[in-house]
Amino acid sequence: MIIYLDVCCLNRPFDDLEQERIKLEVEAVIIILNRCNLTEWELISSDIITLEIKQTPDLDKQKRLNQILSIANSKISFIEKIEKRAKELTTLGFKTFDALHIASAEEGNVNILLTTDDRFLRKSITYGNHLQVKLANPVQWLISIIQAEGETENEANRN
User: Fold this and answer.
1) Distance between CA atoms of 5 and 41, rounded to whole angstroms?
2) Distance in angstroms (rounded) separating the CA atoms of residues 86 and 106
3) Regarding beta strands 74-76 and 112-114, do their DSSP bridges make them parallel or antiparallel, or are they unpaired?
4) I need a surface site. Which of 49, 68, 99, 151 has the fewest CB within 10 A?
5) Given strand 42-46, what is the order of strands in its sheet?
6) How far apart are CA 26 and CA 30, in angstroms?
């Protein structure tokens, strides 16, 4: 399983935990990162993620985000193909960084691009037939994966 977390996801563990939704997303992101760290799944980074993190004004937060990314197995380099694809996606109404994340994830052949950005998710549902990567919220995606793992385990126990 190759996973791409956009910067909203990477930032989630540093957000205010007053809201229950944010608490759930923090837990999901941490579980996902732990599985990547244990090499059950592969976290992939990109030049776009690096660029977006560099725009974070809080240098301490930049450092913490880069520490999280240190578990990534590989990094998708920004190439002309990604730039061209991102321009296509912005014509559909995707924001520039969102389009660049999609184009990078497509280029990296990731299984899932995770985001906590509701507008980004809604736009990806609207234009899903134009995308070559699936997008999801980390909580909903993790629940579906855990359910699938449980079904697989139950099936194995029956045999």
Assistant:
1) 12
2) 10
3) unpaired
4) 151
5) 74-76, 42-46, 2-5, 112-114, 135-136
6) 6
Give the residue carrying structure tokens 């194995």. Answer: 156
**Number of residues that this document lists for the chain:** 159
Give the pLDDT score at 150: 83
pTM over 0.70: yes
Query: Which class for 105: exposed (0-12), middle (13-18), buried (19 or more C-beta within 10 A)?
Result: buried
Q: Strand runs (DSSP E) across the chain, as ranges?
A: 2-5, 42-46, 74-76, 112-114, 135-136
Assign residue 4 a region (left: φ > 0; alpha: ψ between -120 and 50; beta: otherwise).
beta
- How far is residue 135's CA from residue 114's CA, in Å, rounded to a whole number? 6
Residues 137 and 117: their CA atoms lie apart, in Å, by 8
* Amino acid present at 137: N
CA dist 134 and 144 (Å) reads 13
Q: pLDDT tens, 129-142?
A: 999 999 999 999 99
Report residue 65 as tokens: 């985000």
